[in-house]
Please model this.
Amino acid sequence: MKRRTFVEVAGGSALGLLGAGLPLIGHGQDRYARYKGQTVVMSIPSHPHYDAMAKLLPEFTRQTGIKVETDRLAMARMKDKQLLEMAKPSGDYDLACYVVMWKGEYVKKNLVRELDPFFKNAALVDPDYDFKDLVPKYVENIGLVGGPKGYLAGPGAKLYGLPYGAETSILAYRRDVFAKLGLKPPETYADLEKLLPMLKEKSGMGALTSRGQAGHQCVHAWLLHLNPLGGKVFDDKWNPRFNDAVGVKALKTLKLISDTGPVGIPGYGQGEMITSFLQGQAAMYLDSSLIFGQVNDPAKSKIGGQVSYALHPKGVRYSSQSGGLGLAIPKNAKNADAAFLLLQWLTSKAQDKAVAKVGGVPTRNSTLTDLEMVKQYPEYITLRQQLEYSDPDWRPIIAEWDEINIQALGVAVSEALTGKKSPEDALNGMVPKVTDIMKRGGYLQA
Amino acid sequence: MRTPRWVPLVYLGPAVVVMAVACLYPLLSALQLGFYDWSMGTPWAEARWVGIDAFVAAFRDAAVWRSLVTTLIFAAVCVVAEMLLGIALALALEGDVRGMAFFRTLFILPMMIAPIAVGLTWRYLFDAQFGLLNALIGLFGAAPVGWLAQEQTAFIAIIIADIWQWTPFVFIMMIAGLANVDSSVLEAARIDGATWWQTTMRVKLPMIMHVIAITLLMRLIDAFRVLEVIYILTFGGPGDSTEILSLHIYKTAFVGQRLGSAAAISVLLLVVVAALSWAALRLSNPLKDDDR
Model:
């Protein structure tokens, strides 16, 4: 069964009983009546999409009588708190936002609930909730756990969360700068490599901004290029292959980006990367589609109205990242049903559109094709095309990944960026450490 | 009437018990954790006994030793600089300086700011594109520098942030010590014709040596525990050039989810800090004067 087909089938099975359940509840608000007065406590990050979501919550309470409290934390601190809360017999969180990388660990530790039983509960489910309308790549990447690889669609994969704050990578470029210099945005990595030094020299600004800080940030940047260039972190048997010729090529490309970009990329987190583009210090941006809502915000951006979008350049294939955030219901949630109702409401067609209107990111195809929305965000046209190439397998979402990402590859890539080691030496040097971690995790024989 | 011998025990007992529990319980828990393989979010019943494996692995792990060396250099540079600056500032502002109250308040402000805020503030100050530091050197025509993007400058950056935050602590301790120096001794030195330098080096500083020793000890211990500022400023990078041991422990525990290994490294850190503290106390012997 093809992956996309499986995602649709998984969604279909989740909603398979909807038809039977429709007459029981109908289209009214009855499903909420039982939970009126309950309070759903949400764990959310400081993040533009969740800032936008917060604007919708009063309407949810008005419509349903269910109150919502949010516990907002910096992304880096959110996981520690969630692990502590969700490991208790009865936790404080009813709905938890998670980074896609955490899904496998949360399921492995039995901390979150499978969503299928909720979607099969006719008393809870919204008959107008069109599951198949959710972008399938987002659902697969963020919601499914199990299957042959553990984190992708396939036999055994189950739905544990829904995408909310999902993203893919996209190329944004300064239309005015490119027009002035008579340049075209790069369509391939060969174009990109030629363009970078030229753009740096002629534009007087950094060519392409990027993340580069040690740890997760620089690895994210490297993987962005590794995937379209044809590489992977592991082979099919979980042996490290990140140090092969493609891995080295991707790291050399990132080094070139760092050397021709705005000053200081090896110290840039996501915030610095975005700011450098929005403040006119770089001519291009190649990262999360989260940038859409910020480019034309005069409070954050000096380049409103001067940005166009293009596909993530092609290497040996078109491929963009797939990641971001999702929402799941903890095993120990006190108000799990009410939490599901909120989750369902937030990810409904109407609210997906509503959150996008106020600066959030869409998760549904209907939002991406809505004429009114496309008029507000013409970049949705490029985003729709890009999503065709979004690869949920662009990085391995296994429980061991955080350690590999931050304590192994995050050091190696950073050392290559600062020039302390050559890309070859940096990547080769981390093979034993990554192999040890994979042996400890049981993926390779000890 | 003579007080029965058990009375002091009644008064001191509860406090001693509370302190013992508060200090010993976490210590023993950490030690116990070091013998298990356990990750957050799983029941303790699932923890696996691994004996001394984590301690042996900590000793053999090159990353632990690299972090320890980084920590020792960081602590040595920061503590020496903070002591020198704090003592110099206290000597400069101990007398009847005009606007003294204002200066004293100003100097202690950094110490009162949360470490996370200190990290964020310095991250912006060191920002390659928009930071104050690059704006200042730009006035002299210099090209912007990626302070947090190079190993040497990033290490200097974390040292500067620590010195900025903790020199005020040394300043306050020294001001308090100097205020208690017997004025008749200083007067005698002045009558004997001692210069300012001689009075400072041979009278004032020796008389507050016990305060200097305690301050040195407290700063040394704190320098080994710094986490938030470095977490925010560099996250241990570039590479692992600013990964001090406390950050390495944090990553092992909360990124790698290996709490047992993190506990084992913590015990190693505790031994190092205890040894250094013992050495510092032996060298300075702050109670020597009182003993006499």
